[in-house]
Design brief:
Blueprint lengths: L2 H13 L4 H14 L3 E2 L14 E5 L3 E6 L5 H4 L2 E6 L4 E12 L2 E9 L12 E11 L4 E7 L18 H4 L4 H4 L2 E5 L8 H12 L5 E13 L4 E3 L5 E4 L2 H17 L5 E6 L16 H10 L2 H9 L2 E5 L2 E2 L22 E3 L10 H13 L5 E3 L11 H9 L2 E6 L1 E3 L6 E4 L2 H14 L7
Parallel strand pairs: 1-2, 4-13, 4-14, 14-18, 15-19, 16-17
Antiparallel strand pairs: 2-3, 3-13, 5-6, 5-10, 6-9, 7-8, 7-10, 11-12, 12-20, 16-18, 19-20
Helix pairs in contact: 7-12, 8-9
GO biological process, one term: proteolysis
Enzyme class: hydrolase
GO molecular function, one term: aminopeptidase activity
Length: 434
């Protein structure tokens, strides 16, 4: 697969996945098209050798696996982990605000959002809606307006002359989004608007009343390739849907006979402490059901390895001093091995050496990132999964600009590079041992 072909699919996936729910739904469609069979946690499993399966939790986390030709406790598993959520603005439960004839929605900040870039963007709304059916059943569906319906306008510089010197953002006061104009004596009820959208998108559903929702605003500008030589790829939610797409495509294209797993967790951006987060029981419970007892699970884990894929901070040419001078990853110079001696990343010398060997076998580039010693280090699902399971883990990621912005940028060559190495990882017969 060439770079242009790979990136074309990536851009389409990013545009179609404004929320974790949509991302998982899109990946489920791709898995089912490839022959993967859905499992349900509430039912008994009857797993068949050489079949491929997937399971979701909450509609926002996903585990897929397959390829086993023998006991997992002998061969171990090749795991690729990433997260489905991204920092964003979520709609509050009672969001309606009516000011000066403008109908606004109150928002809650989800994760470590870089707030300034959210102003003056053409925004849309998407997520999950739970409704009461005509038969009195509580059901859920996904909605997505797709077109621009909201904006958070900036205050004119004439009304805040010091804005370029000392601007700070109060998320309670400054972030409510303008949705429409309406009369003060007849403001619409937000759940009523949602019901109209549900009926428009899903006329086959017998929805009578919206009970609740999990919705977020998102930028409607599509993902694209840019740069004078088409060096860059920009989109919302590169952190971390980029890694999800890379892992999924690598597994689908690997054709591996080795036991392989995709592990895509929600809620990484808020600490991963949830039923479907990396610090929750989802992955371990699935592995235990496959292994069937604790002893075999322990043996399997000891022979397994995980790629924890999450984007890395590429060195910004205007702020190069924010990086250690020997560890400033460049866009289009290869994926980044992420190292932190305080265990904010789970990489050790064994897992990093293994990645170096795979990459060098393919004659593909890689880089190393260590945060400046006088700065705090971020983290990933890697240390959480490693601590929960005891699995050997590598923290790896594509370098990017503007992490946690409404629009992020990576090199257009790096996603394909990580895809190629991950595909080789899925086909590797012998994994490293401590």
């Amino acid at each position: 697969m060439n770079k242009e072909e790979f990136n074309e699919g990536l851009l389409a996936f990013l545009d179609a996945s404004p929320t974790p729910f949509h991302a998982v739904a899109n990946m489920v469609e791709m898995l089912e098209k490839a022959g993967f069979k859905r499992l349900h946690e509430e039912y008994e499993w009857s797993l068949q050798a050489n079949e491929r399966y997937f399971i979701t939790r909450n509609g926002s986390s996903l585990i897929a696996f397959g390829g086993a030709q023998g006991p997992l406790e002998v061969s171990g598993a090749r795991m690729f982990g990433a997260h489905t959520d991204s920092p964003c603005l979520k709609i509050k439960p009672n969001p309606e605000l009516l000011r000066k004839g403008y109908y606004q929605l109150g928002v809650e900040v989800y994760g470590g959002v870089l707030l300034n870039p959210w102003f003056d963007r053409e925004l849309s709304l998407a997520g999950r809606v739970t409704y009461l059916s005509g038969a009195g059943e509580v059901k859920s569906t996904l909605i997505n307006w797709e077109r621009p319906i909201a904006m958070i306008p900036s205050l004119a510089i004439h009304l805040d002359r010091e804005v370029n010197n000392s601007r700070s953002i109060n998320p309670q006061k400054d972030l409510p989004a303008v949705l429409m104009q309406c009369r003060a004596d007849s403001p619409p009820e937000f759940r009523g608007l949602l019901l109209e959208q549900v009926k428009q998108e899903h006329p086959e559903l017998d929805a009578e009343r919206v009970l609740d929702y999990e919705l977020c605003l998102y930028d409607t500008q599509p993902a694209n390739i840019h740069g004078l030589q088409k060096e860059f790829l920009s989109s919302a939610r590169l952190d971390n849907l980029l890694s999800c797409y890379i892992g999924l495509q690598a597994l689908l294209d690997a054709g591996s006979s080795q036991p392989c797993f995709l592990v895509f967790n929600d809620h990484e951006e808020v600490g991963s402490v949830s039923a479907e987060g990396a610090q929750g029981p989802f992955l371990r419970s699935v592995l235990l059901r496959i292994a069937e007892d604790e002893a075999r699970l322990s043996q399997m884990i000891s022979r397994s390895m995980m790629f924890s894929a999450d984007n890395a901070h590429g060195v910004h040419p205007n702020y190069a001093d924010r990086h250690d001078e020997n560890h400033g990853p460049l866009l289009n110079s290869g994926p980044v091995i992420k190292v932190n001696s305080n265990q904010r990343y789970a990489t050790n010398s064994i897992t990093s050496s293994f990645y170096r060997r795979l990459s060098e076998e393919l004659k593909l580039p890689y880089q190393v990132f260590v945060v400046r010693t006088d700065m705090a280090c971020g983290s990933t699902i890697g240390p959480l999964t490693a601590a929960e399971l005891g699995v050997k883990t590598l923290d790896i990621g594509v370098p990017q600009f503007a992490m946690h912005s409404i629009r992020e940028t990576c090199g257009s060559a790096d996603p394909l590079t990580l895809y190629e190495v991950s595909k080789l990882f899925f086909n590797t017969v012998t994994l490293p041992q401590a």
